[in-house]
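Why should sequence recovery work at all? Because a backbone constrains its sequence more than one might expect. Tight turns favour small or flexible residues, buried strands favour hydrophobic ones, and helices have their own preferences. The token representation captures these environments compactly. In the example below, the structure is given first.
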């Protein structure tokens, strides 16, 4: 099992510190321990290098506090400072909050921060292979024709007839007839009818036969 982002970054940073000629440990400093300790304090966001870089990975900064086990060991701290010059791990100088030291029961001491840029890869889902040729299934289309009748079976001219989704619309002629080309054949079609200051909703079958729609209302 491969180490995680924080483990790999810490091990890399420890190796770099030891190459600078000091004994190094991780975590809060321990008395009579290593000369230098690299203490991971937090994870910070890092700007993506490319617009598409964030699709596959997340870049972040791991902030370490670099300090010595003995508050008076300035020689080891100087070696670490010198090692940061021109290295992938530049030093960052910010005040260390007093509660950081108190949380570990330590005496405040000279220290500086080191940021390590890490990459957290997102798991990519495998794309299934296409093993069959692409097949397009199209639905047969038809023209829905019909007649709109009002009270007494009289034709209603000038009625607005449209599909419920608003995609198709037509007005009835003097004989109350309408035609809506482009509906799916063999399926019920929901219609919305508007006219004479009234609104009606009907569902008809697009089976090829003319539809007859009755709009019952009382004449004023």
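From this structural description, the recovered sequence reads:
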């Amino acid at each position: 099992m491969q180490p995680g982002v924080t483990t790999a970054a810490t091990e890399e940073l420890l190796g770099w510190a030891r190459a600078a000629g000091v004994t190094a440990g991780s975590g809060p400093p321990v008395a009579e321990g290593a000369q230098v300790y690299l203490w991971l304090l937090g994870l910070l966001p890092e700007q993506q290098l490319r617009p598409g870089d964030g699709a596959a990975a997340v870049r972040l900064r791991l902030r370490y506090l670099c300090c010595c086990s003995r508050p008076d060991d300035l020689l080891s701290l100087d070696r670490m400072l010198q090692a940061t010059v021109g290295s992938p791990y530049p030093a960052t100088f910010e005040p260390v909050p007093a509660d950081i030291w108190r949380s570990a029961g330590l005496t405040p001491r000279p220290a500086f921060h080191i940021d390590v840029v890490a990459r957290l890869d997102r798991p990519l889902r495998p794309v299934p292979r296409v093993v069959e040729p692409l097949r397009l299934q199209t639905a047969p289309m038809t023209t829905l024709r019909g007649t709109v009748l009002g009270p007494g079976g009289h034709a209603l001219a000038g009625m607005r007839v449209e599909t419920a989704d608003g995609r198709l619309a037509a007005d009835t002629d003097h004989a109350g007839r309408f035609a809506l080309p482009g509906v799916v054949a063999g399926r019920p079609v929901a219609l919305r009818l508007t006219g004479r200051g009234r609104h009606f909703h009907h569902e008809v079958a697009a089976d090829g036969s003319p539809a007859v729609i009755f709009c019952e209302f009382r004449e004023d």
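A few observations help interpret the result. The chain has two domains: 5-121, 141-214.
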